[in-house]
């Protein structure tokens, strides 16, 4: 939500005769969600102003409460979906939830965990590296042990200067101890697939250049392939859980009481989803989104977050920005900006704050919380309402804290005036300007990438179901082009080699006790 706050007044403060924002899209901007008061914006961007004055507060109160209400409803829908999924994923399928394993053992099995020598060995190695690098930062004459982004943000891509190898792009290496440790808790096929499909993604780029297809903008549309794979996983989850969903409907309809141990009843959860989606639809219609686009937009969004939640439950990968599949790119590729029209483009721009990146999406964490509550015998109902209440409170507090900082110091004075305080607003509204300036038609090649990803993930899931030894998991393909994998693929490589070696030498039972 920090990104949201920085965009609320951006379109009005940075409008100039040169960029023509006023003529292009001011008339489409919902004033009740944004701030256009020159005096209020002057204090926001220049600083040395008092936020507590009535004139300033009155300008911000409606946008703050409106966006906070939207966020709360969005969180409510996710919570209700997790209530429906909890029993199937947590108790019946008993998915791995690697991240929750650490939290549970640290808080509940302290004596047994810290009595193992290997635990202290791991702590010692990680702590020694961190201490050495910390002192090296303070005293540059000391040696350092590089473990993160070796080669910089670009990595080793610059070493490849000849075609077709120069198409490989950024490829960096990292050896974070905590990521390697998490990889040891993952199923071996998932940790293996994570780095394998990253290399597969890079191989596609090289092959495209060698075949002379790189002249097609965006080809081979890796990001759209990943979204297609996400659709395939979503379909498989729905199909494989149909029996559970039918049971949920039966329990909700007949009040059998079989959901007594759930955070809320299935009946209430279903009503929460229906009412929540209705409110999201009304909100979207009020900001100018067309009726035909609203269900499609939220269908894409919830497909991604459900797959993300499944990915965390199975894989526990610590970084899942999923910036390779934002809603607005998928819809613009699918329909083109000419068909979408300015009203929908403005609505997509206003919504970019919660779907440009899924790093902090709450749905996976909610289900992990339910998993921990089940193992820790914490009342799930109390956790449900605590999560909902804290989310509503935090949505308002984010506005309050950031506004206080900016009215004190000035957004233009933060990070030199070009960092996150103003940079995200510039990114989204400059993007809107380009959409309007240069209308596009539907991109059939990108749609083809989605279809290929769907078919490819379906093939992977079929092979996994048919052959026990099949090592390739479609989740690895979904995250292959995500920016996090660019820096963490080498960690997954190390952890999968270690786990394979332990399995080979000691067998599954011994390796399970080792972690």
From TrEMBL:
Highest taxon of source: Eukaryota
**Can the keyword Iron be found in this entry's annotation?**
no
UniProt keyword annotations, A-Z: Membrane, Transmembrane, Transmembrane helix
Q: Has UniProt tagged this entry with the keyword Transmembrane helix?
A: yes
Q: TM spans, by residue?
A: 65-85, 118-139, 167-188, 195-216, 222-243, 264-283, 289-308, 383-407, 444-463, 484-503
Residue intervals of the DUF6785 domain: 1-410
Q: Where is the DUF6784 domain?
A: 449-512
Q: Which InterPro entries does the record associate with it?
A: DUF6784, DUF6785
Pfam annotation, one family: DUF6784
The name this protein carries in UniProt is Uncharacterized protein
